[in-house]
Amino acid sequence: METLRHIVVFVHLIGFGTLFGAWAYQAFAGDRRFVKIMDYGLAIAGLAGLILAAPWGLAEGAEMNYAKIGTKLVVLLAIGAMLGIGSARQKRGETVAPAVFWLVGILTLVNAGIAVIWR
Ligand code: HEM
Fold first, then answer.
1. Range of 32's domain?
2. How many angstroms separate the first and last alpha carbons of the chain?
3. Ligand 1 centroid, distance to 92 Cα (angstroms)
4. Considering the entire predicted model, what is its pTM?
5. For 5-28, how does the pLDDT look when each residue is reduced to its tens digit (9 = 90+)?
6. 60, 76, 82, 87 — which has fewest CB within 10 A?
7. How far is the CA of 53 from the centre of ligand 1 (A)?
8. Mind giving me the DSSP string for 58-79?
9. Can you tell me which atom of ligand 1 is nearest the CA of 46?
10. What crossing angle do the helices spanning 66-91 and 36-52 adopt, rounded to 10°?
C-alpha cells in the first residue's frame, strides 16, 4: 500500500510539473496566454492530491496534516479560478490580465512549497 501511495505522489508530481512547466514556458516566451495542457496538469495534480488526502498507505506512525491539505485545496481552487477567468477572456479574443497570468505560476509554487516545507 505504501508503494501505491508513492506512485500516486509520483502522478501528483507529474501534474505539478505539467502545470508549472507549461506556465513557465509561456512566461519565458513572453506569451502570457493560458494553454489547454495547464488545465490537464491542474486536473492530474488535483485528482491525485484528493486521493492522497485520504489516510491510506501511510508509513507506520505517520499522520495526516488536514490543515495543510485544506490549504492546498483552497489554493488549487484559486488556480482553477484564475485559469477559468483567463481562458474565458482568451476565448473572447481578449488578453489575460497580467495579475491573473502571474498568479497561476505563483500559486502553483505556493502549493508545491506548502507540500515540502509545511510539516
Ligand atoms: C496545483 C496544485 C498542487 C501542487 C503544485 C502540489 C504539489 C505537491 C508536491 C510538489 C508534493 C510532493 C511533496 C513531497 O513529496 O514532499 C505534493 C504532495 C502532496 N500533496 Fe500536493 N499539490 C497540489 C495540490 C494538492 C491538493 C489539491 C491536495 C489535496 C487536497 C494535495 C495533497 C497532497 C498530499 C497529501 C501530498 C503527500 C505528501 C505530503 O504530505 O505533503 N495536493 N504536492
1. 2-117
2. 22
3. 33
4. 0.94
5. 999 999 999 999 999 999 999 999
6. 60
7. 9
8. PPTT----HHHHHHHHHHHHHH
9. 27
10. 160
Name the band, by pLDDT with cuts 50, 70 and 90, for residue 113.
very high
- Neighbouring residues of 101: CB distance < 8 A, sequence distance ≥ 6: 26, 27, 32, 33, 34, 86
Q: What is the Å distance from ligand 1's center to 94 Cα?
A: 33
Asked if residue 87 lies in contact with residue 34, where contact means CB atoms within 8 angstroms, the answer is yes
Nearest atom in ligand 1 to 73's CA: 27
Look at the alpha carbons of 47, 37, 90, 76 in this order and tell me if their dihedral is positive or negative.
positive
Report yes or no: 97 and 5 within 8 Å, Cβ to Cβ.
no
Residue 83's pLDDT is 98
Atom of ligand 1 nearest to the CA of 107: 1
Please tell me the total count of domains within the chain: 1
**Could you give the CA distance from residue 50 to residue 57 in angstroms, rounded to a whole number?**
14
